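INFO batch 0412 | record 1 of 1 | parsing
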Amino acid sequence: MDIQNIIFTIAQSAPGFILAIVVHEWAHGYVAKRFGDNTAERAGRLTLNPAVHVDTVGTIIFPLIGILLGGMAFGWAKPVPVESRNFKNIRKGIFWVSFAGPLANLFLAVVSALLFVFSVKMLPQFGLKNSMEGMLQFSIFINCILMGFNLIPLPPLDGSRMVSSFLKGEALRKYEGIARFTPLIFIAAIFLSFQGVHTFGYILKPFLSMGYFLINIFDLML
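INFO prediction complete | emitting tokens
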């Protein structure tokens, strides 16, 4: 990619990416509050202001690397603080607080797909129409990928917390112990991708297909 294409990709993917990670973390904090824990709110994190959610590596460096390598923006925001001991129902709270982030990304993907198809089929041509539709396309697939990635049941991803809400005792302790191997698993997956074995690509492919499915569904409806 030349510098012009890099800047263009950043400009088109940044709005969807920022919205995706911010709403993801806000959803965790909001649902935690509904279950009795206002830690995120007291920390000033129960907000859609991107500035309080920025993580230098996950929000800036990692997405830029992804774009420079020819992909799309992918990363994370600073996790909102959650204290599960404050939940009225701990197991139920852990499950739904963890699931809230991926569900928020699904909601954004659906809305983005609806707006994209509406723009393509219903709106007349205007100066920024193509750029807006490009941003909406990025938003669809960024949200689908973030949802899929966070549902991977590897600690400390959201999917692992959802699984852990059903475990207890020794089974829970052993499952949470996998967390110390997670960085090695990710490093191995990245290394294999450079060897042509796209491990995460295989895992996330159904979620990319979901993006196309949403577009096709709304295309039939409108």
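INFO post-check: The chain has a mean pLDDT of 93.
INFO record closed
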